[in-house]
Design a protein that fits this description.
heterodimer; A: alpha/beta; Rossmann fold; Barwin-like endoglucanases; 3 domains; 23 helices; B: FAD/NAD(P)-binding domain; 5-stranded parallel beta sheet; about 25% strand; globular; iron-sulfur (chain B); oxidoreductase (chain B); iron (chain B); Assimilatory nitrate reductase electron transfer subunit (chain B)
Chain lengths: ~750, ~550
């Protein structure tokens, strides 16, 4: 497995869905003046590879600090290098693979015997390669035969996915290449903060900013909102939880002022008339009283957007949604409102304009296509579709009848753990639910109630530390595979170095578990072979990868065309290779009649809204230096130094009112719990809103107090808004849970 | 699946409130009701609030059509009005002669324009008869006629300076007409604005091209050949000034349509008298909502109030269904349709309604309608909003504290009224951002700042101006956000030998993320080249680690 020739390897950043192109040169660290990855590997390990950015369409040669320092994660001192099994003394101790897998096999068998196959559940992650995600879904359905598999993408992509599927018949985050944004006159960013979450993305906003057309909807004047300053665009700053009202009002203005693209609506959509009526009640002045955005700002924005639409002679407009509007109990409806607006202006399925959602996790796109989702089979097929079951069962060599039906979605799954009738054993792959799931104190209770918790990770995350068995797995530069970026571009992840100690790929350990559990289903462990099987399983599905292979992706990249966009079906005999589909929907939508479906939606408001004893909104988000639960980035000293601890942004008026000074400890209480953090006074937040980033465990772990109310359609939790009270923390006193336990 | 016969509901009035009620009922439980709607106008329900925008040419008529509730349990009769109610037989007879039985009757008959009987507007018998060119602004037909008339005439008079009058005057002025607004009060919108705010608004209207005649009434509408040709103002007696205009818009208030109720023997005053539960005190099966109703809290004629009443009444009618279902259930086998709040899902309808019924007693006494009384004028750049405690007040209310910003020269007036730590009223003219913030604070009851005077301005923190030259930039300023590079990092790498932006990028990674800081880094390099050559600035002091401060 290990490489001997120290030649640079083309791969991609391990973190977000932008999947910045980078080049890794295997260690030893060369030039002393290169700051990159100048952290040495622990003794006895391979030297760390050196990171350099490379030109790839999404990052155009840029990398943020996370990317530059990503190699550090390969060599963190507390890397898990052997399987760990919790002993009689209650401590996790090193074990052999044989011992660990025996414990799991026995545990699974015993749970299955007592509680049936649904007693074992699986929780996956959007950071896993396509090959791993696919294998995990196959393992759950054919070996465990449990319906209960879902993944953390439920927390980030499910509302946009549900809305996209409903309106377009397909969900590819961006159904166009990211570089298309550069030519647009207006880019409307809804609840997205790429300047913080995927910095190199900002390059693609330059064109819109030159035209004064960057429109940012965010209750906070975020780093991205600040890019719209000085005439480069518009920042709309609504009351948290009212994004949908802004969208309904924008569409109202489009209708009222005759700005809609009537020809496009007639030819390419259905449902327009009902949507028109549904926004009649949202004239800007009324919208203002709900969302707090001045009526004239709403009008100006709608006109600006419409003027950029192709039907009005503009140079193009894009509407993009992010977690800020999606992580809501009305997330699917809000995305639908964004889609309706885009369709009314004739933007979707046109070169140079469009609607997209900004996928968050590294493989958040691919991870939602190949069977980790509770209701899905590979190729973005529905698990309750008999034809889909038959096709996939055929590829897997099983009887379609043995495939389970839809299982519990993430929040319901976590809440059911260890309850009567709920799962008693859980496999967690690539997720740190103790920090990243909403209402996290409840998640801790539920995990404690399990008979068996198996966590596969490469660092001892907070969730791993609770496990009965921890399995050390390969990461990023230690494995081969594919990822699907936020554009729907399938790209190659390549191995540069070998994993330390006993760490193994999930592909191997799942195959081994399948064998030990007596399955006769074949589980290949070579990623290229797994991909070929995935491609066959996806054939004919919405996300059709059947014309792709590792070899083809490698050849395309060598030829200067990195990555291929799905759908990319296998050609019929005698036909040339399918070129992939950079732009979807140009001729028709993936709906039965080929038209985009417009669905009327209305505003309901947050489930946990402000009230007398909780009069302030809490919103959450990310900082540039950290990624998701922070399990990786908190272990990188260069990143941790800059943002070492959780904090809460308070408007000075709020700080003065509740008696929390700048820099003091603040206590924030919701109906679910309490957190404490350091207060930062800033006017980027509204006086009625407090903001906290969510990358930490312990006393400042904000997901301990976020809401686990879910969207009725997507089951996505309402992370982004809840009601809290804000008060000074008791002087000098720190919560007992306030230990980060991350090595220096 | 229903366990019972649907509740028969007759709704009289197919306007914004009547149709909203039906929509709310259908959303809750379509099969529980059998609904008949009688609508006097021949149109689908439309957004009456936007008629002034139609007049102003700011909205397409197509944009004001509201969703029309439909379904197998909803019968809509358009162009049909209710003629009489027989409460004993529980029937309504319509103008087409049909008779509709009901379990519950909802009157949502709205209101009609009030017309003062001055010469020119009444016929010989004293009956109101509007000559051609004179229009109230109440219905879609009115709006269409005004729009048509505005095309052919250069001058218009708007009579009545309330919210609708201000919107109509502003809108017609925006169409290029010479508009005269005649108002009996000292300043427009006297019901919502005190004299200071009113004078700021008056100035704004004048600046928009509206000629204002305050403290003035119209004594006569001049008619020639059956059409209006102008109005005579009451100022100066019988020979009052004449304003020539072939378009006269009457916005002198409204009168609730309570005739049907009165004829049915129900108590009426200004409107149909109802209790907090929106039911007539004379007949628990009859409800009134919207402009026609007169609840104990009074009526301001705002649609938000009517919609709030529709929502509350829908809750109540649904709870009656739930009660019947519960009663029916007791005599049948237990069923699995109680889902309690769990796992973040919504509780089942039965549970929600049960909770509602349980909590009803507490809310019956004083229904909370706050937040529905925000008056936001639709007049483009003239930003005017009033809510709660606002306008001229005769006396001080103990515990209330009002702070005011009066900035006449800039066309701005802001008043915030605070009690018990929350905003209980506000007026804002000429500052849309502050108006939006006040509205959010008022409707959500968020606690007010320590000093309520903060409410009068858009809150901003004092922040350093962007440094005019690199020299004045603090050392810990983050230059490259993507890579957390400060000015200090850059000067240090310069002193270590870096000489070009490329050298700086190699050493610090500045500019290698999104590239937005390239200009700043180049500027720093130029400054360093110049200042270090001069033997300028001494070595920097060791700074704190960089924070997240932005450039």
């Amino acid at each position: 497995m290990s490489r001997t020739v120290a030649e640079p390897v083309r791969t991609h950043c391990p973190y977000c869905a932008l999947q910045c192109g980078m080049q890794l040169t295997p260690g030893p660290v060369p030039a002393p003046d290169a700051p990159a990855a100048s952290v040495s590997a622990p003794a006895g390990r391979e030297p760390l590879p050196v990171v350099a950015p490379r030109d790839f369409p999404t990052n155009a040669g840029g990398l943020c600090q996370k990317g530059w320092t990503s190699a550090t994660v390969l060599g963190v001192p507390d890397r898990i290098t052997t399987p760990l099994v919790r002993g009689a003394d209650g401590e996790l101790a090193a074990a052999t693979w044989d011992e660990a897998l025996d414990v799991i096999t026995e545990g699974v068998r015993s749970v299955q015997a007592e509680h049936g196959p649904q007693g074992v559940a699986v929780f996956g992650g959007g950071g896993l390669t396509n090959e791993k995600a696919y294998t995990l879904g196959k393992f759950a359905r054919t070996v465990l035969r449990t319906p209960n598999i879902d993944y953390n993408g439920r927390f980030c992509m499910s509302s946009a996915a549900a809305a996209g599927n409903r309106s377009f018949g397909a969900d590819r985050g961006m159904p166009f290449p990211l570089t298309d944004l550069g030519g647009a006159e207006v880019v409307l960013l809804l609840g997205s903060n790429p300047a913080e979450t995927m910095p190199p993305f900002v390059q693609h906003l330059a064109g819109a900013r030159e035209h004064g057309g960057l429109v940012v909807l965010d209750p906070r004047r975020s780093a991205t909102a600040r890019l719209a300053a000085d005439g480069q665009g518009i920042h709309l700053q609504p009351v948290p939880g009212t994004d949908m009202v802004v969208l309904l009002a924008l569409l109202h203005v489009v209708v009222a002022e005759g700005l809609a693209d009537r020809t496009y609506l007639a030819e390419r959509t259905s449902g327009w008339d009902d949507v028109v009526r549904s926004v009649a009640a949202w004239w800007p002045e009324r919208a203002e009283t709900v969302c707090g955005v001045p009526a004239e700002e709403l009008r100006t924005t709608a006109r600006r957007l419409a003027a950029a639409a192709p039907s009005r002679g503009g140079r193009g407009a894009y509407v993009l949604t992010g977690r800020g509007v999606e992580q809501s109990s009305q997330g699917t409806a809000t995305v639908t409102a964004a889609i309706n607006l885009s369709l009314a202006l004739g933007l979707v399925g046109r070169e140079g304009s469009g609607y997209g959602c900004l996928t968050g996790q590294g493989n958040g796109q691919g991870g939602r296509e190949h069977g980790q989702k509770n209701d899905q089979l590979p190729g973005y097929r529905k698990i309750d579709d008999p034809a889909a079951r038959e096709h996939v069962a055929g590829v897997w060599g099983v009887d379609p009848a043995v495939l389970p039906g839809p299982g519990l979605p993430a929040v319901a799954l976590l809440n059911a753990l260890g309850t009567p009738g709920g799962p008693r054993a859980l496999f967690v792959h690539g997720s740190n639910v103790l920090v990243s799931a909403p209402n996290a104190d409840r998640v801790r209770e539920r995990l404690e109630a399990l008979d068996l918790l198996v966590v596969c990770d490469f660092v001892p995350s907070e969730t791993a530390r609770m496990a009965d068995v921890v399995l050390p797995v390969t990461q990023w530069a230690e494995e081969e595979g594919t990822m699907t970026s936020l554009e729907g571009r399938v790209i190659r992840r390549r191995q540069v170095t070998t994993a330390p100690g006993e760490a193994r790929s999930e592909l191997w350990l799942l195959a081994e578990l399948a064998r030990r559990l007596g399955s006769e289903v074949s589980f290949p462990t070579d990623p290229a072979v797994v991909f070929d099987e995935l491609a066959r399983a996806s054939a004919g599905g919405v996300a059709d990868y059947s014309g792709l292979s590792h070899a083809r992706l490698d050849a395309a990249e060598d030829a200067g065309a990195p990555g291929l966009f799905w759908p990319c079906p296998a050609p019929s005999a005698g036909e040339p290779e399918h070129p992939g589909t950079p732009r979807m929907f140009l001729d028709r939508f993936e709906t039965p009649d080929g038209r985009a479906r417009m669905v009327p939606v209305d505003h309901v408001g947050p489930t946990d809204d402000v009230r007398g004893d909780a009069p302030t909104y809490l919103v959450t988000g990310r900082v540039l230096q950290h990624y998701q639960s922070g399990a990786q980035t908190r272990r990188v000293p260069e990143l941790d130094r800059i943002v070492p601890e959780p904090y809460a942004e308070l408007h000075p008026q709020l700080g003065l009112r509740v008696g929390v000074a700048d820099g003091a400890r603040v206590r924030i209480t919701s109906a679910r719990g309490v957190v404490e953090a350091t207060a930062r006074w800033t006017d980027v937040v509204r006086p009625d809103t407090v903001f906290m980033p969510f990358h930490w465990s312990g006393a400042g772990s904000v997901n301990r107090i976020t809401s686990d109310a879910v969207d009725p359609i997507s089951s996505m939790p309402e992370f982004k808004v809840c009601a809290v009270s804000v008060s000074p923390a008791a002087h000098g006193e720190r919560d007992v849970h306030d230990s980060q336990e991350v090595p220096a | 699946m229903t366990l019972h016969v649907p509740l028969k509901i007759v709704v009289v009035g197919h306007g914004m409130v009547g149709s909203r009620l039906v929509d709310e009922l259908v959303r809750r439980s379509a099969e529980s009701f059998d609904i008949t709607i009688l609508g006097a106008e021949p149109y689908e329900p439309y957004n009456r609030v936007l008629l002034s925008d139609v007049v102003a040419g700011r909205t397409d008529v197509a944009a004001i059509t509201m969703p029309e509730p439909s379904g197998e349990h909803v019968t809509t009769l358009r162009g049909v009005s209710a003629v009489s109610v027989d409460r004993r037989a529980r029937t309504v007879t319509d103008s087409a002669g049909a008779v509709h039985g009901y379990d519950h009757l909802v009157l949502a008959t709205g209101s009609r324009a009030r017309v003062f009987p001055v010469p020119g507007l009444v016929d010989d018998d004293g009956e109101v008869r509007l000559p051609a060119g004179v229009h109230a602004l109440r219905t879609l037909d009115d709006a269409r006629e005004i729009v048509a008339a505005s095309v052919n005439t250069p001058r218009a008079v708007v009579v009545g300076g309330g919210v609708l009058g201000v919107e109509a005057a502003y809108g017609l002025a925006g169409r290029g007409l010479q508009v005269t607004l005649v108002d009996t009060a000292p300043a427009p919108m006297a019901r919502q604005l005190d004299s200071a705010a009113g004078s700021v608004l008056a100035a704004g209207l004048e600046a928009s091209g509206v000629t204002l005649h305050s403290r003035t009434s119209v004594s006569e509408v001049l008619v020639a050949g059956g059409r209006a040709v102008g109005v005579r103002l009451a100022t100066g007696g019988e020979d009052g000034e004449v304003v020539a205009a072939r378009l006269v818009v009457l916005t002198t208030g409204t009168v609730p349509e309570a005739g049907l109720a009165r004829d049915a023997g129900l108590s009426t005053d200004r409107g149909i008298v109802v209790g907090h539960d929106l039911a007539s005190p004379d007949d628990p099966r009859v409800f009134a909502i919207g402009d026609c109703a007169q609840p104990p809290t009074g009526s301001r004629g705002l649609v938000a109030e009517g919609w709030d009443q529709a929502r509350r009444l829908a809750d109540h009618l649904s709870s009656l269904v739930a009660v019947r279902a519960e009663q029916a259930k007791r005599v049948t086998a237990p069923r699995e349709h109680l889902r309690f709040p769990h796992e973040g899902e919504r509780p089942s309808m039965a549970v929600r309604l049960g909770t509602l019924i349980a909590s009803r007693a507490a809310t019956d006494a004083g229904v909370d309608t706050r937040g529905t009384d925000v008056v936001k004028v639709k007049a483009g750049s003239l930003s005017i909003v009033a809510m709660g405690v606002s306008g001229a007040r005769d006396r001080e209310v103990p515990g209330q504290r009002a702070v005011t910003l009066h900035d006449a020269a800039a066309g701005r007036y802001v008043e915030a009224v605070v009690a018990d730590g929350i905003l209980v009223g506000a007026t804002c003219v000429g500052d849309p951002r502050v108006a939006a913030d006040l509205t959010a604070a008022y409707t959500r009851r968020t606690p007010v700042p320590v000093d309520p005077a903060f409410l009068l301005l858009t809150p901003v923190m004092p922040s350093a101006e962007p440094a005019s030259s690199p020299e004045h930039m603090p050392d810990d300023t983050t230059v490259c956000r993507c890579n957390g590079v400060t000015k200090h990092d850059i000067t240090r790498c310069w002193d270590d030998g870096a000489r070009t932006p490329e050298d700086i990028a190699t050493a610090t990674r500045a500019t290698t993320g999104c590239g937005s800081c390239r200009e700043a880094v180049c500027g720093l390099a130029d400054w360093l080249a110049a200042s270090r050559a001069d033997g300028g600035e001494a070595a920097d002091a060791e700074p704190e680690p960089a924070g997240l401060a932005s450039v």
